[in-house]
Amino acid sequence: MKLFKLFVLLSLFTSTLAAQVIIREKVEVKPKAPAKIKTTSSSASELIFTFELNGTTDPVRPTFISVDNLSCNTTNSTNLTTLTIPAVAGGYHVLAGFSSLSAVNYTFTIRLGTKLLVQETGNVAANTTVRLDKGIPLFNAVMMQVVGSNATMFYGESKEFSASRDANPPCSGPAFSADEMVTLNITEGASFGNLYDQGVLQGSTYTASFGDLASVEYKADGEVPFMDEVPVTIEASAGGASIGTLHLTIKKPQPVLDHFEIVTTSDTVAHSKSIGLTVTAKDINDQEIPLDGSRQLVLYVSPGGGDVKIEKNGMSLFTRTLRPQRPTLEALAIKKGERVAASTFGSFVIEGQAPSPDEITVTYATAHSGAISYLADGGVPTGNNPEPVVINVAATDDFTKYGLKVVTVTPASVLNHFTVKVTPDTVSFGETSVITIQGKDANDFNVDPPAGAKVNVVLRTDEQYGNLSYSGIVGKTLTDVPYEDARDGKVLFAATGKNPLGLDPQSVPIGVTMAGTLNIAGSTAVVVKPTIEKFCQGDGRWGGQNYDSFKQLDDKGNVKQPERQFTIGEKGCALSCMAMVLNAVGLNYNWRAINDYGSSKLSSEPKRVGSDLNWKNKTPLDLTGIDNYLTKKDFVIVLVGNSSSGDPTKLWNHWVLLTGKTGGKYQIIDPGRCDNNSRTTLDSYTNKIYRAIIYERKQQ
Predict the structure, then answer these.
(1) Where does 239-314 show beta strands of DSSP type E?
(2) What percent of the residues of the chain are helix, what percent strand, and what percent coil, each to the nearest 5?
(3) Confidence of residue 14 (pLDDT cuts 50, 70, 90)
(4) Residue 533 pLDDT more than 90?
């Protein structure tokens, strides 16, 4: 239905002294098709009313024009054939007329600027009165609103919207006529949808006459919103001026349940054993969607392979073939209350509840939480061969929403061997690892020996890097340890033997056997890394001693006078690093011996410190060179820039010991940080070194 219809009433009548002729016409002005209407604007600032007469009018009853804008003003003219007034929006009521003394031809016109709105012509006899009654709607604003007043829509939906004149227009111009061309333009969110007219796509911009706007709709058929909701703005304009705005909100499409996915903790389960399962709701794109946690699901198990018959009340409905993927749509004829006729191959167990053979009804929240297990406690696989079974799930209110998972039931497990794990599998000297074991069958599935079974846990008798411990017993061999305790991690390995200083990390084999037999066994290994004892220059045992080798020099390299005596705690960082290295290789040089001799001489005269090390001064070394020495297990002391104030521009010399590289970071022991471990990596000193002393381990 078009919004505006122009009604024109024409009244032609005479006075009481003359014959009266009345003519009433109802003229409906229909908008033309948008493609055929010119798009020139009719907005103007003036309304012009004109009488054109070719006869003599009655001077007693002169020509008159009366114009009434119902909202703004009223204008009257007498004895004039032309009236011009400002054009503003609103509904105009026009009365015009004259009385003739002689036969008269007349033309009455109403123009909006140069645009002709109304033209009436006639020929009347002498002594005739003519009266014209016209209605003229003008507008300068469009009120656009969604039909139904709901401006929020989901992606893929359509909204029809209406356009009407402002009910309370301002008494100002410019003004437009009812057949004015109006352009709709999606100015915000243009990528999310399009304009349509009577179902025909128009795109993001559409121009039509004002009256045709009632058939326009917006459809959210563009891009899918990337947020939960996006705004869309449609603006209307005429004559280059904005005359209305419509705001819409597009929301993401609501997720729709298409199927369920079943994930199991294993694709194979030994007879009498269980596996966990989780059910997840998915959409058509296989993306997880939120689902009401109280929605009821049915889980049931059916045999795998071959055909499965779908029955109801003892009558076969159809047969479907199950495969390790989703079945075809013909399998979806199951209605509520129908189930698969299947031989028993297992049960479902909810935590803390008794097993439910074949079938169980649960809420989605329970199925999705992982609280359900599948227990293979049904029929024994035929001929001791693995048998496939299918775990099915479906919504009880809609069996077309389903999912399945194929698992294999193997014959009952027989203990074949042990797996042995240590956590962590690498420790430093002085640390401890937990040893756990697990019984396995020939297919490597978990199987525990009979209750009361015992195991032996052993190291090599000559193992020098650590010991086993259990329940207060420490040694290289632990015998008759209850299997349950060994399985639960109550056996420990402690790296309390020899510290492998200067060596590669040492592998310590660990073996497990069933008590009374060597046929059921398992093994693993733990790696022991060396631990370097940290010496701090401020240690109370030596921090207050004078540091004999340190001399304070002036700008010319001469010893300052009077000479100041520094303590090891103040300047003994290099000395501390040297002491750590010498003790790490077992030379056991005490602090006083190193200090009395002088660290500068010690580094330049390697023969004085034994034959286990070669000492090399390197000035400077890049980090690549450092890596090469660390790979060979050499010891590296590096000179870094230290700042006690936190100002990197105010540095004083400091020596630290590099111990290795982990995760791209250089590990250090900082002798100046005795109170905490705040600086344990070289990046604490910006990874910049100024000198390096390499303590190269001699090859034996």
Answers:
(1) 241-251, 259-264, 268-270, 274-282, 296-303, 307-312
(2) 10, 45, 45
(3) very low
(4) no
